[in-house]
Every structure is written in structure tokens, then in C-alpha cells.
Design brief:
Largest sheet: 7 strands, mixed
Number of strands: 14
Bound molecules: pyridoxal-5'-phosphate
Distance between the termini: 20 Å
Number of helices: 13
Order of helices and strands: HHEHEHEHEHEEEEEHEEHHEEHHHEH
Shape: globular
Strand content: 5-15%
Radius of gyration: 20 Å
Structural class: alpha/beta
Strand order of the largest sheet: 1-9-8-5-4-2-3
Length: 364
């Protein structure tokens, strides 16, 4: 049996008539930059995330970068980020010239350790960027309390958390600005790059709306030195179609995750542990195991594709290794032991059962 890690083509197959109609309408309208499709998607996604405003941008990295810009964070400022994240979280901070202050995760939840955040706050700290890694949401109430106490901004990296909830509240407007990616492999993804921010703050939303479009609200009138980071119109057509399926697709992910959790509980694998009162979007199902590479090879020999999120933490990348000589042992331990099992809305249950069967065989 062959079990691919992710099957993106199935999303197209499931939605073919809607997608083809959407493409036809796009060409009939002949409007290629911003316009109604982007506005419609922004309204739909704001509504989905229970937030007041959504602004579509070019990709997830830009969404974090523009959030920092809108909050006027830059040179001389410090921003707290997790040591274990996709490098985009760090790159956005570097791009505005601010100083990265890495904080280790809690080894159980794999999320930024809130107990360690306070120790890193200085008079230069301006913001914290929590990452809802793998779809497991950070305890936002606790983080908001810390931010309130020290007057810090919160920019959420929600690139893996479409549809996640914490304490019965959707991820989307806890922090000052919430950043989203619609990279094809995300829970909500286009067929190309895309991103957005959501917020309840009208002024911040307008600032980002202006920044993403050459610093302009009215054509050829430029208030600020902006950028070109618009959500592509055709991608927004696809995203509106796929958004209608997101809750159902997340439910399918959850069913798979629950099956893994139950049937792998008696193996030596360390299974994912969610935050308290969390509803994960189950972007990834990440287990940990000390002989991870050996297990991965075994699964591969049985036709099961797994991935590693992530094999090298940002501080160990060449891009950052001259800036960070410190050890971050928890991030490094994670990089050496994590393994992402196949999960997705179009993964057949037969395949899921096969993955479990082969893992059990491995440990026999
Ligand atoms: C995917 C991702 C991003 C970046 O999104 P892009 O759209 O690829 O720029 C940022 N942070 C995290 C945690 C991600 O998973």
C-alpha cells in the first residue's frame, strides 16, 4: 500500500465543478488585481474566524512582516518568538530589523513556554509572536495577561491553525493581529501563494490594507512607503470555494487524529498533547521517538511517507547561526525526535489503519 503524506489533488477533484465555474467567472469579469473576489473572501474569512476585519496579502511571511510594520516595530525593538517554528516567524522579525528573542517550547505541547516568556521581557520588548504550531493553539488567555502586564503587542502566527479554538473561542482575534498563510498545504490553502491578517482593530486593518498596496488608498496617491503584497484575485476565488469545506475537512482531520491517539497509545511513541481546552485544527500529527530516523526509514520501506517539522531549528540554520551561538536544547531535541504522520481530509481510513498496523509491527 502507498500512503502519501498529503494528497492535494483530491481537493481539486472534490471541488472540480465549483473551481471550473470560478475560473470561468474570473475571466468573464476580467478583473485581475484585488476587486470583488478578494473583498468577498476577506469578509468570509473574517466571519469564519469571528474577527471584525480581514486583509488579504501575498503570503504568510508577508502577513507577519506587515503586522510588525503596522505596529511600527523595527530597529532597536525586541520581539519574542518560539525557538521551534517554521523559519518564517523569525524572518519577518529580521526583515523589519528588530531583534529576535527566542524562547523555548514546553516539551509536551511543543508550544512557546509561557513560564519562560516573562523572564525574557526587557524595556525594549515590543511584541510576542506565539505560533499555534501543528494547529495546537497557544493558551491565549494566559498570554494576553502577560502582554497586558508589560504592555506588549501580540501578533499570532496562525499559519497552521485555521479553525482552531482555545477556551471555546476561535483563533482569529485574541491578539492585536493574527497572521495567516494560504500556502497550498495548509488547512485552508490556495493553488498558489496567499495570506491574510485578521484583527478587531479597524485602524490596524486599514494600515495593513494601505501597506499591502503601495501605501495607497486612492490610486496614485501614496500616504506611506508601502509594498506590493496583495492577495492574488484568482487565489481568493479558490479560497472562497475551499473555505466552505474547511470545517468538514478539519473534522476529518480530527477523526484521524483521534484514531491515531487511541490506537497508538500503547506504543513507545510520544503522542501529541494539546493545550488545555484546545480544539486543534490538526494541521499536523506529530509524534516523537528517539530513533526517529530508523522508524521513518521503516515506514518509508512500507510505502508510508512521513515528514519532519522541522529538521533544523531556525537558530541552527546557516541564515542565523552567526547570530545565535546559544543552545536551545528543547528545540534541538524536538528537531531530532519529531515525526509527522500522514493526516489530511482526503486520507482514506484504510490508509490510516495501515499506518497504525505498520507502526505496531515495528515495535513488536
Ligand atoms: C507556512 C507557515 C508560514 C509562512 O507562510 P507562507 O505563506 O509560506 O509564507 C509561517 N509560519 C508558519 C508557522 C507556517 O507554518
Amino acid at each position: 500500500m502507498n500512503v502519501p503524506f498529503l494528497n492535494l489533488h483530491s481537493t481539486y477533484e472534490e471541488l472540480k465543478p465549483e473551481i471550473e465555474l470560478g475560473i470561468k467567472k474570473f475571466f468573464d469579469d476580467g478583473h485581475y488585481i484585488l476587486g470583488n473576489p478578494v473583498e468577498n473572501f476577506e469578509n468570509e474569512f473574517a466571519s469564519f474566524t469571528d474577527s471584525k476585519f480581514c486583509v488579504g496579502v501575498a503570503d504568510g511571511l508577508d502577513s507577519i512582516y506587515l503586522a510588525l510594520k503596522a505596529l511600527e516595530i523595527g530597529i532597536g525593538d525586541e520581539v519574542i518568538v518560539p525557538t521551534n517554528t517554521f523559519i518564517a516567524t523569525w524572518l519577518a522579525v529580521s526583515q523589519v530589523g528588530a531583534k529576535i528573542i527566542p524562547v523555548e517550547p514546553d516539551i509536551d505541547t511543543c508550544l512557546i513556554d509561557l513560564k519562560k516568556v516573562e523572564q525574557k521581557i526587557t524595556s525594549n520588548t515590543k511584541a510576542i509572536i506565539p505560533v499555534h504550531l501543528y494547529g495546537n493553539p497557544v493558551d491565549m488567555d494566559a498570554l494576553l495577561t502577560i502582554a497586558g502586564k508589560f504592555n506588549l503587542k501580540i501578533i499570532e502566527d496562525a499559519a497552521q491553525a485555521h479553525g482552531a479554538q482555545i477556551n471555546q473561542r476561535k483563533i482569529g482575534s485574541h491578539g492585536d493581529i493574527v497572521c495567516w498563510s494560504f500556502y497550498p498545504g495548509k488547512n485552508l490553502g490556495g493553488y498558489g501563494d496567499g495570506g491574510a491578517i485578521t484583527t478587531n482593530d479597524f485602524e490596524l486593518s486599514e494600515r495593513i490594507r494601505t501597506l499591502r498596496n503601495y501605501g495607497s488608498k486612492v490610486k496614485y496617491v501614496h500616504q506611506v512607503k508601502g509594498f506590493n503584497s496583495r492577495l492574488d484575485t484568482l487565489q481568493s476565488v479558490f479560497l472562497s470555494i475551499k473555505l466552505k469545506k474547511l470545517s468538514e475537512w478539519n473534522k476529518r482531520r480530527e477523526n484521524i487524529a483521534n484514531y491515531y491517539l487511541e490506537s497508538l497509545s500503547n506504543t513507545p511513541l510520544i503522542l501529541p498533547k494539546l493545550s488545555l481546552n484546545a480544539l486543534s485544527s490538526w494541521h499536523l500529527f506529530v509524534v516523537r521517538y528517539k530513533n526517529r530516523n530508523h522508524l521513518q526509514e521503516y515506514l518509508s520501506s512500507k510505502g508510508i511517507q512521513t515528514l519532519i517539522h522541522y529538521p533544523i531549528p531556525p537558530h541552527k540554520q546557516d541564515a542565523y547561526s552567526s547570530d545565535f551561538q546559544d543552545d536551545f536544547p528543547i528545540a534541538e531535541e524536538m528537531a531530532n525526535t519529531v515525526l509527522s504522520l500522514p493526516i489530511g481530509p482526503h486520507l482514506e481510513f484504510e490508509n490510516v489503519k495501515y499506518v497504525v498496523q505498520i507502526i505496531k509491527e515495528y515495535f513488536k
